[in-house]
Write a structure and sequence with these properties.
This protein has 386 residues and is of the alpha+beta class. Helices cover 39% and strands 10% of the residues. It folds into two domains: 72-175, Phosphorylase Kinase, domain 1 (2-Layer Sandwich); 182-369, Transferase(Phosphotransferase) domain 1 (Transferase(Phosphotransferase), domain 1), CATH 1.10.510.10. The chain contains twelve helices and eight strands. The strands form two sheets. It has a six-stranded mixed beta sheet with strand order 1-5-6-4-3-2, with helices on both faces. It has a two-stranded antiparallel sheet with strand order 7-8. It is found in: Membrane. Residues 100-386 form the Protein kinase domain.
C-alpha cells in the first residue's frame, strides 16, 4: 500500500444514513398530524364552551349573535385603516364582539337600535344597527353617511369609524359621545344648559361648520342644481332656530302658527315682535339682545337663494356682535313656488347679480360694520443732527 499523505476515506455508510433520515421524517410527520388534530379539536371545544357561557338576548333585526375573537393581524389592519381616516368594513361577528353581544342599548328609533361598544384598544363606540327592511330613503341615507361622514374628520363632527353590510344586517359604527348630543339638552323638559352657554355653542359651531353635512337646503330637492357650501349655511340657520326656541323646528300641536318654528320666527320679526317671542321662549331679559341677533342671523342663513345666504365668516361676525345686521328678505318662498326661479337671489335693481363675488367680499348685504374708525395722525419724529 502506497502512502498518499491524506487520511484514509471513511467507510461507506450512506445506505444506513438515508434510512435513518427517512424514519425520522415519517415520525415527525405523524407527530405533526396528531398535534394539528388535537389543537383543532381543543379550539372547537373552547369556542363551544364560550358560546354556551354567554346567554344571547332575543335577536334584534336579524343580528347574528356569536362570540368572536379579533386576532392580532385583523386589529393591526384596523388600526392602519383608522390612521388613514377611512371607514372600515367590519363583519357582523366583529360588531358582536365589540358590543359584548349587544348587551348595552343606548337608544332606538325608526331606523334601528344603537348599542354601546368598545374596540379592543379601549376606544368607546356607538353601533347603530339598522332595520333590515329599509326603504329606499333609508338605504340612501346609509350610503350617504358612509360616503360623506366616512371621508370627513372634524372636531365638531361625530366620526364614523366604519360600517357593516351583508345579507343579514347593516350597521354604522360611530364615535361614542360621552355627554350625548345637543338635542338631548335643547329639547329636555328641564333647563340643562344656561342660555349664555348655548350662545357660545352657536358661535363655536359656526366657526367649524363649513364643509360639514347638515339639514337639507331647498336645492337638495332639485335636480341639476349645484350643491355648494351654502347648503351648510342653510343647515346652520335651522339649528339656530332650535337653539332659540329650545324645541324642534317641527312640532305639531294645538297652535298651528307654532307647528313650524322658523316660519313663526319670521312672522314675529315681520310684526316687530321678536322681543316678545324670545321672552315667550323662556329667554331672560339679559340674553334678549343676543337671542334677537341669532334670529336675524338664522333668517339670513335660510334664504331660498344660495347666493343670498352669508358665508360662515360673516355669520360668525354677526353672532359675535359689533356689527349692525341688515334686514333679511322673506325666506321660504320655495315652500309655495315651483321651479328654479325661487332659488335665485332677489333683485332690487333689475339685475340678478345683486350678490356678486365682489360684493360678497364686503359683506355689505348682510351687515354694516359699526366699529368706530380711529382717526389717523401722522407723527413726525425730529432727529437731531450730530
Amino acid at each position: 500500500m502506497s502512502w498518499t499523505g491524506y487520511p484514509p476515506p471513511p467507510p461507506d455508510n450512506s445506505g444506513k444514513t438515508a434510512a435513518a433520515v427517512i424514519v425520522s421524517l415519517v415520525i415527525l410527520a405523524i407527530i405533526g398530524v396528531v398535534s394539528c388534530y388535537c389543537a383543532k379539536k381543543m379550539r372547537k371545544a373552547i369556542v363551544t364552551e364560550l358560546q354556551a357561557a354567554v346567554a344571547p338576548p332575543a335577536p334584534a333585526y336579524n343580528v347574528v349573535h356569536q362570540v368572536w375573537a379579533v386576532d392580532a393581524p385583523t386589529m393591526e389592519k384596523f388600526l392602519q385603516e383608522l390612521a388613514k381616516e377611512k371607514p372600515v368594513r367590519f363583519t357582523a361577528q366583529q360588531l358582536c364582539s365589540f358590543t359584548s353581544n349587544y348587551s348595552t342599548t343606548l337608544g332606538s328609533g325608526g331606523f334601528g337600535v344603537v348599542y354601546k361598544g368598545q374596540f379592543p384598544n379601549g376606544v368607546k363606540i356607538a353601533v347603530k344597527v339598522l332595520k333590515w327592511n329599509l326603504d329606499r330613503t333609508a338605504v340612501e341615507q346609509f350610503m350617504a353617511e358612509v360616503g360623506t361622514i366616512g371621508r370627513t374628520y372634524h372636531i365638531n363632527l361625530v366620526r364614523l369609524y366604519g360600517f357593516c353590510y351583508d345579507h343579514l344586517m347593516s350597521a354604522l359604527v360611530f364615535e361614542y359621545m360621552e355627554n350625548g348630543s345637543l338635542d338631548k339638552y335643547l329639547f329636555s323638559d328641564t333647563k340643562a344648559i344656561e342660555w349664555e352657554k348655548l350662545h357660545e355653542i352657536a358661535i363655536g359651531t359656526a366657526k367649524g361648520y363649513r364643509g360639514t353635512p347638515g339639514y337639507s337646503a331647498p336645492e337638495f330637492m332639485l335636480k341639476n342644481f349645484p350643491i355648494t357650501h351654502k347648503c351648510d349655511v342653510y343647515s346652520f340657520g335651522m339649528m339656530l332656530f332650535e337653539i332659540v326656541g329650545m324645541r324642534k323646528n317641527t312640532k305639531v300641536g294645538s297652535n298651528e302658527s307654532l307647528d313650524w318654528f322658523p316660519k313663526h320666527v319670521w312672522g314675529e320679526y315681520e310684526k316687530g315682535e321678536l322681543e316678545a317671542m324670545t321672552l315667550s321662549c323662556g329667554i331672560e331679559e339679559k340674553d334678549r339682545v343676543k337671542a334677537e341677533r341669532m334670529c336675524m342671523v338664522a333668517l339670513w342663513c335660510v334664504q331660498d337663494a344660495p347666493d343670498a345666504r352669508p358665508p360662515m365668516s360673516a355669520v360668525v361676525k354677526m353672532l359675535e356682535g359689533g356689527v349692525e345686521i341688515m334686514a333679511p328678505p322673506k325666506p321660504f318662498h320655495y315652500l309655495f313656488s315651483v321651479g328654479l326661479n325661487v332659488l335665485k337671489p332677489p333683485s332690487n335693481s333689475g339685475n340678478s347679480s345683486d350678490y356678486s363675488t365682489s360684493e360678497l367680499g364686503t359683506n355689505s348685504h348682510w351687515y354694516k360694520d359699526t366699529t368706530p374708525i380711529m382717526a389717523k395722525y401722522e407723527i413726525q419724529i425730529a432727529s437731531s443732527s450730530s
